[in-house]
C-alpha cells in the first residue's frame, strides 16, 4: 500500500510531492498562508472547517428534509464559520441521505468569503458539483485498502488515479480541491495503520494539486501519541500549513488529539456542530468532534477563530431538535445548562423584586 501510493505520487509528479502546483487564484482560503504562532508554538489563529451538514448528516437513518439541511447551513454561516462542507455529490445508492445535494446547494445562502465545499468521488460527482455552481470540492482517499474498497469500491491506487482526474478537471475550471486521508491512524477492518502509509497517501493528494489535506481519524481510535506519530510522518512530505485534522470522538480522545495537533502547528480543524456524524462505511465510529468543544478549547488557549459560540449553540440546538436527539456536544450541554440556571435565577430575582415593590405599594396605600 505504502509503495503503491509512493509509486503513484512519483508518477504524477515526476520529482515528488513537494513540486505542488500553485494554488488557485480566487479560492480565498485555498490561497491563504498561515501566520503567527503563540509562544507555546500553537497557531495564533485556527480555521474551523465545519463538516456537520455533510459528514454529520450522511449517516442518518431518518430522512432529513432539505429545508432542515439548508437552515442548518445558513445558521452556521451566520455563526461566522468560513468553511462549511455542505453536502456530497456521491452515488445516491451509496449515500441516500445526501441525494438532494443539488437542491441543498441551490437553496442555501452563499455568503461572500465563505467556502462551501462538497465531496466528489469521481468525475460524475464533479460534474454535478460544477453544474450546481460549487467552487470547491473535496476528494477522499484512505490509508487502508480495506476501507477504500468498502467506502468507494476501489483500491487506494485506483482511487488516487480517479482523484487525479477530478483534481485536474476541477482546477481547469478554477475550482479548489481539498483532500482527505481516511483511517490515518486506524482502520475498522485492518486495525493498525502505518503512519508512513497515511503520509504517502496525503502526499499523493497534495502532489496532485489538493490545496490542503485533512488527515482523518475516521473511527476515533487515535491518541495524542498516535496522532503525533502520524502527523510527524506526514509533515516530512507536506508543509504543516497545508494540513488539517479530522477527529472522530469514539474513544473521547478527539479534543486531546486536536490539542496535540495544534502543538505541532496544525491550524485547520474539522469539526461538526453538536458532534453529529459518522461514516456509513466505518462500523462503530461515532460523530466528529463537536464544533462547540473545539471553540472552547481554542478560547482556552487564546487562539483566534472568529466564530460566535452563541450562534453555533443556536445551530446546535436547532439540529439536535430537528433530529430529535440530545445534543452531542459536552460544551453545548454545559453552556446551555449554565445559561438556563442563570436565566432561572434572574427570573426568580425579578419576581422577588416585583413582589417587594407590590408589598411596598400596598403598605403606602394603607
Ligand atoms: C465512488 C462510488 C460512486 C463508486 O461506486 P460504484 O458502484 O463502484 O460506481 P459505478 O461507477 O459503478 O456507478 C454505480 C452507479 O452510481 C452512479 N454514480 C457513480 N458516481 C456517482 C456520483 N458521483 N453521483 C451520482 N451517481 C453516481 C452511476 O451512474 C451508477 O448508476 P446506475 O447506472 O447504477 O444507475 C460510490 O462508492 C460512492 O458514491 N461512494 C461514496 C461513499 C461516501 O460518500 N462515503 C462517505 C464519505 S467519506 C467519509 O465520510 C470520510 C471522511 C471524508 O469524512 C473523512 C473521514 O472521517 O475519514
TrEMBL record:
Residues 333-360 form a coiled coil. The keyword Lyase applies. It comes from Edaphochlamys debaryana. This is hydroxymethylglutaryl-CoA lyase. Belongs to the HMG-CoA lyase family. The keyword Ion transport does not apply. SUPFAM superfamilies: Aldolase. It catalyses: (3S)-3-hydroxy-3-methylglutaryl-CoA = acetoacetate + acetyl-CoA. Pathway: Metabolic intermediate metabolism; (S)-3-hydroxy-3-methylglutaryl-CoA degradation; acetoacetate from (S)-3-hydroxy-3-methylglutaryl-CoA: step 1/1.
Amino acid at each position: 500500500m505504502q509503495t503503491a501510493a509512493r509509486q503513484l505520487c512519483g508518477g504524477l509528479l515526476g520529482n515528488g510531492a513537494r513540486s505542488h502546483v500553485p494554488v488557485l487564484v480566487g479560492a480565498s482560503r485555498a490561497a491563504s498562508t498561515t501566520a503567527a504562532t503563540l509562544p507555546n508554538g500553537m497557531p495564533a489563529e485556527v480555521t474551523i472547517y465545519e463538516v456537520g451538514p455533510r459528514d454529520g448528516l450522511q449517516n442518518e437513518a431518518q430522512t432529513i428534509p432539505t429545508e432542515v439541511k439548508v437552515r442548518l447551513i445558513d445558521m452556521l454561516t451566520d455563526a461566522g464559520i468560513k468553511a462549511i462542507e455542505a453536502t456530497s455529490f456521491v452515488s445516491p445508492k451509496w449515500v441516500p441521505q445526501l441525494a438532494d445535494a443539488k437542491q441543498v446547494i441551490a437553496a442555501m445562502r452563499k455568503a461572500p468569503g465563505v467556502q462551501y465545499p462538497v465531496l466528489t468521488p469521481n468525475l460524475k460527482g464533479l460534474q454535478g458539483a460544477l453544474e450546481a455552481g460549487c467552487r470547491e470540492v473535496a476528494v477522499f482517499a484512505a490509508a487502508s485498502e480495506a476501507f477504500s474498497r468498502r467506502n468507494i469500491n476501489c483500491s487506494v491506487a485506483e482511487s488516487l488515479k480517479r482523484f487525479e482526474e477530478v483534481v485536474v478537471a476541477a482546477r481547469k475550471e478554477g475550482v479548489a480541491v481539498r483532500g482527505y486521508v481516511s483511517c490515518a491512524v486506524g482502520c475498522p477492518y485492518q486495525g493498525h495503520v502505518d503512519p508512513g502509509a497515511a503520509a504517502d497517501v496525503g502526499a499523493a493528494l497534495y502532489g496532485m494539486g489538493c490545496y490542503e489535506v485533512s488527515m482523518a481519524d475516521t473511527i476515533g481510535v487515535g491518541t495524542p501519541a498516535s496522532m503525533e506519530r502520524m502527523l510527524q510522518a506526514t509533515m516530512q512530505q507536506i508543509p504543516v500549513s497545508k494540513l488539517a485534522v479530522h477527529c472522530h470522538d469514539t474513544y473521547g480522545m478527539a479534543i486531546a488529539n486536536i490539542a496535540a495537533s495544534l502543538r505541532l502547528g496544525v491550524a485547520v480543524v474539522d469539526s461538526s456542530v453538536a458532534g453529529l456524524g459518522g461514516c456509513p462505511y466505518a462500523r462503530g465510529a461515532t460523530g466528529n468532534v463537536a464544533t462547540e468543544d473545539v471553540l472552547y478549547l481554542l478560547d482556552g488557549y487564546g487562539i483566534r477563530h472568529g466564530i460566535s459560540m452563541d450562534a453555533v449553540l443556536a445551530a446546535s440546538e436547532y439540529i439536535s431538535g430537528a433530529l430529535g436527539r440530545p445534543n452531542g456536544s459536552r460544551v453545548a450541554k454545559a453552556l446551555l445548562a449554565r445559561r438556563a440556571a442563570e436565566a432561572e435565577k434572574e427570573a426568580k430575582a425579578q419576581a422577588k423584586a416585583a413582589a417587594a415593590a407590590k408589598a411596598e405599594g400596598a403598605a403606602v396605600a394603607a
